Amino acid sequence: MKSKIICTILFSVLIFSIILTPQSFGYGGGEPPSTKVCGDKLCSEIPGGRDAWENKESVTITIENEPEIISTEVSDATTDLLNYDIQSGELAIMWLGNHQKGSLEGYASAGFLLRTTNYTIAIDPSSLFLDDVDSLDRLDAIFITHDHGDHFDPESTIAMQAKTGSFVIADPTSVSMLIDKIPEDKLIQIEANEQMTISGITVDAFAAEHPTETPLLYVIEFDGYRIFHGSDSGFVEDLKNIESRVHVAMVPVGDPSPTASPQVAFEMTQATNPYVVIPMHGSPQQMEEFSNLVEGSGLETTVTIPSPLEIIIPTKVVPEFGLLAVIMLSAGMGMVIYLLRQKSLIQIKC
Q1: Contact predicate 187/179, CB 8 Å
Q2: What is the mean pLDDT of residues 236-263?
Q3: Is 148 left (phi over 0), alpha (psi -120 to 50) or beta?
Q4: Helices marked H in the chain
Q5: Comparing C-alpha atoms, which of 270, 260, 259, 261 is closest to residue 294?
Q6: What's the pLDDT at 304?
Q7: Angle at CA 29, nearest 5°, toward 90 and 277?
Q8: pLDDT confidence tier of residue 243, bands split at 50, 70 and 90
Q9: How wide is the angle at C-alpha 120 spanned by C-alphas 99 and 145, nearest 5°?
Q10: CB-count burial class (<10 Å; 0-12, 13-18, 19+) for 308
Q11: The dihedral formed by the CA atoms of 203, 204, 208 and 212, expressed in degrees to the nearest 10
């Protein structure tokens, strides 16, 4: 009798080891996936279609090459992202490039647009949409890490929020510049070591290391994805307290930040342990240096060096199992095994 119980337990463990293999959560085990660059082709024209994504590859869709007119390119790229036929389980990411306006033009950017089937969010858009707000047909949330101009532009943020009705979640210093300019119910102040959920989007804030009053780092969770954004901070020890692996990390590799560097970005990557990491806020040389650090470290993390205004579609990541789902699955499998054994439909011998 005892041996039968032990064999039943071992059989259950074997089934669970198959179901909950790391591959069930996106990139896990084995060699990191490759990256395809599809030029100006649409998704439907990619050789292999969606099978390429299911086979643990990354697909990058290039929107445009060297821009001639910045405003036209930003608006066209945004329209392409918002019109992209995104499928359940997909995450689309677009780095906004180094296209800030005015005195910040040409500076390294930490600006991103991210889209799933249910949400579109912007992180540190700076002045990147100053002349292209009309291209934003939908935006659920704007996240601001701190008040420096290469991350936050009050005029652009106000215009983006007015066009889309989005929430604006920001550090206290940035919020102080937006009071009475954005509706009170849409302007959300968040501080270090605080977690909140806004319209289905959960965010954890960490104090950043950067020369301003209230800089923050974020882990943002929506549609089953966990996204880390490192602003242009130095490394902070609190990141080692992040318990769950993030799906995508965007990490600062250097210029013009006095606190960011390839080594700092690598330490952030080690702490957040992402499936995919995207270097930002630095020179091409710094991005390559960071990539070499990751690739030589043994981390099971894929480095994707972005090009401005490309849409990056990482491998399909299955949203993580919730506790209730695991309990229900465990109970159901145990019952099935018990009934089958009682009816002698299966025999398990040790």
Answers
A1: yes
A2: 93
A3: beta
A4: 2-19, 51-54, 70-83, 154-164, 172-176, 262-272, 284-295, 323-342
A5: 270
A6: 94
A7: 50
A8: confident
A9: 60
A10: buried
A11: 50
pLDDT of 330 higher than 90? no
Q: What is the pLDDT of residues 56-78, one digit of tens each?
A: 344 333 333 333 323 347 888 89
Whether residue 242 contacts residue 268, with contact meaning beta carbons closer than 8 Å, is answered with no
DSSP string, 146-172: -S-TTTB-HHHHHHHHHHH--EEEE-H
Report how far residue 210's alpha carbon sits from residue 214's, in angstroms, rounded to the nearest whole number. Answer: 9
Mean pLDDT value across residues 286-313: 93
- How is residue 77 written in tokens? 């790229």
Q: Pick 224 or 319 by higher pLDDT.
A: 224
| Domain boundary assignment for the chain | 1-20+321-350, 21-320
Q: Of 183-192, 304-313, 323-332, which gets the smallest average pLDDT?
A: 323-332
Q: To which CATH superfamily is domain 21-320 assigned? A: Ribonuclease Z/Hydroxyacylglutathione hydrolase-like (3.60.15.10)
